Amino acid sequence: MKVNYYILRNGKLLRKENTVYFVFAKDESQPQPFSAEVDGEEVEVETENLSEKPEYERRILPIEQINSIFGIGRVSITSGVISFLAKQKIPVHFFGYYGHYESTLYPHESLLSGEMHIRQAAYYLDRMKRLKLARKFVEGAAKNILRNLEYYQNEGKNLNEEIITIKNHIANLDQYNDVSELMAIEGTIRNIYYGTFSKILKETFQFEGRTKHPPENPINAMISFGNSLLYGVTINAIYHTQLDQTISFLHEPSERRFSLSLDISEIFKPFLVDRTIFKLVNKDVITENDFVKELNGCLLNKSGKEKFVRDFDERLKTTIKHRELGRNVSYERLIYLECLKLCKEFLSLKPYEPFVIWW
Amino acid sequence: MYVIIVYDVSVERVSKVCNFLRCFLAWVQNSVFEGELTDSQFLRVESGLKEIIDENVDSVRIYILRTSDAVKIKTIGVEKAQLGTII
Hints:
The structure holds two protein chains of two kinds. Chain A is α/β, with parallel strands linked by helices. Helix content of chain A is 45%, strand content 18%. Chain B is an alpha+beta fold. At the A-B interface, strand 1, strand 3 and helix 8 of A face loops of B.
């Protein structure tokens, strides 16, 4: 099984001996490890033999085992590695300073299908069909939220009121006849859900509603970071299907972004991101020291990011026996299967039913 | 399958074998690699190694285990392996 690599350090990806090397300075405090000043001019350090120099460390990533690379630290790439990764069909996701998703080095599409493309677009253009799919995405997200709440209800938290309200919202989804209304109701459900965080989480962390750009407190910082990671993971899954990344249904497709991933990741957020947060906070894995407070926001620092990524990745690799397939699949694979269900819907083979945690 | 590959090859071919195996598996110490492989990857590793080594002189041993759960690994002394996907 191929794995995702998460690079938290600052460094450079190189192509060497037909595989990928990640080279980084042993001493992190060096601001720019790959350039030096010679006669007052900035010169690039020769990268060819960098990995042999004593002040640098290297990690060798076996090319055959890489599913994708998440560049969370400041990762530089060389032209050699760009073409090599493109050939091997490995996407590289980049994240910004605030932990937000920034961009993807996207290998050329290899699974092209004109028919699928047209059918996916036709679903977007047909108002009723688009509405139906958008409703399914909201329903899937809401049901997974419900499952989280029910879990904590069983753990002895009093969430009865919120559960009933969300159930009512789900039952009434059919009456909305506009995608923007569905977006609004999705937001309402999420607000109710975020309202319960203060009951679910330990008191050490305060959470008063969702804030972004930048997140204002530790919980928001984790939600933002987790959602960005999930966004990248979903792009990977879609890349391995014939679906078009840019045509979405619940979110408005817009220029220069992979919006289908936003739709699909909506379903998986409660299950993959929020549960990671609950676990990290309630088991005291993450503490105040894992965040940096800045003038107008709060961010995960390096140790915080590492803890988060570690648990998130473990979760992705966890397997569960799939009812229909009758074999074990990893949670990451479930996202891919979700894309296949969408394909079947577009080809009118099987109506799409969103993933809901069944265990 | 989970494999452990140990090789004892002539000096002029050591780095060739090492570089080849680096594309598939994790280096754990001198002349030892290990990791998870699919069936097709295994065949490629096998045929690739056959091309590099001189089968009259060199020796490569491959320990094949069904899954990584089937093996328990204990290190005494320095852990030289660079495992883990979080860097």
